[in-house]
């Protein structure tokens, strides 16, 4: 600090120190940036842009406003009390005719069908029947399909004409909008996602707990053995990393299925009867067992790196001060490993709530995760907006857990190896 | 340290072997091997009396820390017995021994405050809250850290951490405290300060202490008795002055203090003296200590401050006088350190007080040096 803060420090030739310093480091900053730029570019293209696109898709709502643009314009100023007038129906007929010629009514009909069942056939049938229709279109269209005489259909078209929508998010949490814009729970038979979110969360917690239970003693052993033994053990811990994920998962199928290794052994030993073989795969048990195994290294490594830094003299000191071994562990060793537990815990938990392949292969119906439904909506139902909304909620949950973790433990305390 | 205490210390050190109460802690012929091939400790015997300060001194790898760890219970003796107050404790786990211990790097629990660290041994003994509070306060006062109770160990300096470790080892009032190179991580000034601090606390509390160090100055300053270790064997067990003045073998003579060595062969025994013919041809009169019989090889050990320069007229009555050539003179203020070449030894050191006449020595100059045969100890080869 200079004595007089009013006059900034300068170099010998009178240039302010800050400016000359900035000049001096500019070159090295530029070099550093060039070095990381390939990775930065890759991340932007392969990571940030897809995530942005996903977030956009979860609220994007172009179908009605593009494919029914004339209808939407004609609906301007509609009183929402009675059916709209002839000019709106004429606009609808025009829109449908154009859509039929361009063969692009599919997206529109699916989009409206998510919100009101029967809309897909209403649109396709009306578009096909349009050729024979004569004005006035109002009566003719209602005649053709009763949905056009339903006030709710028109309320829906007006609502969904907005370019952004929350309905995917509502669907993702088993809610829907009534025609009058109120949020209500979906019919009982259609409630699916909230249960799946909860199942994903609690099964991830169970998996995290199991990896901790199994990993803690191993990590302790690794940290306390002499180097040549611990290196060997470390290779065994890392071995799963070098084996294909699919191989590991299918191996569990071979072990756990009802005609599998474990059941056969139990039957041979007389522990269970042949008819009463355990059902351990294609359900929650299968998912939990396989994922605990697969995620175990992610718990062991952070634990190990923390335990490695705890000198054995702490435990010795505690013993010499009169503590029984378990008490010394509880009061001295365990508290010092908490950063490792937290790091391993958050890592396994976050990996686990986003896990896809293993639950898909061994989860059956009851052991599936929310990620499996994201895939389902992406690949089978083709409701990408809903898939994006579910994925965005998952991303949000992960970020919240991370922030809570950072607040309580501090990410800077975490070492991964 | 006051004079009477110093005197007392000397007396107790001298009296130890005979007519004292049964020793407080004992090692009886203890051996230790880690790999089943080599013995790290080869037959260790030591009696520690109540209130005594015993130091295990030796180079690293000499087995001294292993002995300490066996007393603490972290290592099991391969052979032999360890007794505490007359009871064998070989199979007693560490937490039941009630021995305080100060570790090399203090081993203060980093997640507990200083007070919590001190309270730990009291809590595991189920003392009442008020009692714990009182004892912790007293222990903090003892090491003069009254205001530091709420700090974490990482917020303390090395010396303060050292004091806390000391307080923690003492707070539950053990009768025996073990210290494993406790001052090794401190700088020189702090180390000296802590030596006196530990000595003061030892005198105040009257606990027995076993102290492990490789620093001979530390051992000489603090101990009632010192066991000099080398190669798993105690080379000599004696009070500091005895170790310095009367080392029993060449290792002790070298390890404790500075030492000039001359090598030769015993040629004749004359009453209290022996004659040694050096390899360079001269004959020296020496005091036989551990020098075998006539014809045996021997190492003559001579403290630098016991060698004098014989000035022209006055001879201080040395019975060994030799012609030497000055190689180097180092001025150290109160004394001069002169390296000379004598009896074929180029590294022969003289420490002479900076008295008048001596400072005129110059390299290359010839001088007459001499020593008394009683200061020249003939030890093992």
From TrEMBL, chain A:
<dbReference type="GO" id="GO:0005886">
    <property type="term" value="C:plasma membrane"/>
</dbReference>
<dbReference type="GO" id="GO:0055085">
    <property type="term" value="P:transmembrane transport"/>
</dbReference>
<feature type="transmembrane region" description="Helical">
    <location>
        <begin position="201"/>
        <end position="225"/>
    </location>
</feature>
<keyword id="KW-0812">Transmembrane</keyword>
<protein>
    <submittedName>
        <fullName>ABC transporter permease</fullName>
    </submittedName>
</protein>
<feature type="transmembrane region" description="Helical">
    <location>
        <begin position="288"/>
        <end position="311"/>
    </location>
</feature>
<feature type="transmembrane region" description="Helical">
    <location>
        <begin position="332"/>
        <end position="357"/>
    </location>
</feature>
<keyword id="KW-0813">Transport</keyword>
<feature type="transmembrane region" description="Helical">
    <location>
        <begin position="384"/>
        <end position="405"/>
    </location>
</feature>
<feature type="domain" description="ABC transmembrane type-1">
    <location>
        <begin position="197"/>
        <end position="405"/>
    </location>
</feature>
<feature type="transmembrane region" description="Helical">
    <location>
        <begin position="32"/>
        <end position="52"/>
    </location>
</feature>
<keyword id="KW-0472">Membrane</keyword>
<keyword id="KW-1133">Transmembrane helix</keyword>
<dbReference type="InterPro" id="IPR035906">
    <property type="entry name" value="MetI-like_sf"/>
</dbReference>
<feature type="transmembrane region" description="Helical">
    <location>
        <begin position="232"/>
        <end position="255"/>
    </location>
</feature>
<keyword id="KW-1003">Cell membrane</keyword>
<dbReference type="InterPro" id="IPR000515">
    <property type="entry name" value="MetI-like"/>
</dbReference>
<dbReference type="Pfam" id="PF00528">
    <property type="entry name" value="BPD_transp_1"/>
</dbReference>
<comment type="similarity">
    <text>Belongs to the binding-protein-dependent transport system permease family. CysTW subfamily.</text>
</comment>
TrEMBL record, chain B:
<dbReference type="InterPro" id="IPR017871">
    <property type="entry name" value="ABC_transporter-like_CS"/>
</dbReference>
<keyword id="KW-0472">Membrane</keyword>
<dbReference type="GO" id="GO:0005524">
    <property type="term" value="F:ATP binding"/>
</dbReference>
<dbReference type="InterPro" id="IPR013611">
    <property type="entry name" value="Transp-assoc_OB_typ2"/>
</dbReference>
<dbReference type="InterPro" id="IPR050093">
    <property type="entry name" value="ABC_SmlMolc_Importer"/>
</dbReference>
<protein>
    <recommendedName>
        <fullName>Spermidine/putrescine import ATP-binding protein PotA</fullName>
        <ecNumber>7.6.2.11</ecNumber>
    </recommendedName>
</protein>
<dbReference type="Pfam" id="PF08402">
    <property type="entry name" value="TOBE_2"/>
</dbReference>
<feature type="region of interest" description="Disordered">
    <location>
        <begin position="1"/>
        <end position="23"/>
    </location>
</feature>
<comment type="similarity">
    <text>Belongs to the ABC transporter superfamily. Spermidine/putrescine importer (TC 3.A.1.11.1) family.</text>
</comment>
<keyword id="KW-0547">Nucleotide-binding</keyword>
<dbReference type="InterPro" id="IPR005893">
    <property type="entry name" value="PotA-like"/>
</dbReference>
<comment type="subunit">
    <text>The complex is composed of two ATP-binding proteins (PotA), two transmembrane proteins (PotB and PotC) and a solute-binding protein (PotD).</text>
</comment>
<dbReference type="InterPro" id="IPR027417">
    <property type="entry name" value="P-loop_NTPase"/>
</dbReference>
<keyword id="KW-1278">Translocase</keyword>
<dbReference type="GO" id="GO:0016887">
    <property type="term" value="F:ATP hydrolysis activity"/>
</dbReference>
<dbReference type="InterPro" id="IPR003593">
    <property type="entry name" value="AAA+_ATPase"/>
</dbReference>
<dbReference type="InterPro" id="IPR003439">
    <property type="entry name" value="ABC_transporter-like_ATP-bd"/>
</dbReference>
<dbReference type="GO" id="GO:0043190">
    <property type="term" value="C:ATP-binding cassette (ABC) transporter complex"/>
</dbReference>
<keyword id="KW-0813">Transport</keyword>
<dbReference type="GO" id="GO:0015417">
    <property type="term" value="F:ABC-type polyamine transporter activity"/>
</dbReference>
<keyword id="KW-1003">Cell membrane</keyword>
<comment type="function">
    <text>Part of the ABC transporter complex PotABCD involved in spermidine/putrescine import. Responsible for energy coupling to the transport system.</text>
</comment>
